[in-house]
Design brief:
Blueprint (H helix, E strand, L loop, with lengths): L6 H19 L1 H4 L10 H29 L2
């Protein structure tokens, strides 16, 4: 099996993985410490939407990178 040596394809895979991981753990930063401030439903939906978009872009980048790395 021959893998591509093009660094841009490998960076696409790595950055896509970074986006997916960032999207999955970003909810930790969106929560208030100790629950001191109440969070409304619109804020929850906005955070969920941003995370979903971030994860989707990351998955597309990983898929593209893998398709380019594997001939």
């Amino acid at each position: 099996m021959h893998l591509s040596t093009n660094i841009s394809h490998w960076m696409c895979v790595l950055m896509g993985l970074f986006l997916v991981v960032t999207g999955l753990v970003s909810h930790v930063h969106s929560q208030s410490p100790g629950g001191a401030m109440p969070v409304d439903d619109s804020h929850d939906l906005a955070c969920l939407g941003k995370r979903a978009v971030l994860i989707a872009i990351g998955l597309v980048a990983v898929g593209y990178g893998v398709l380019r790395v594997l001939p």
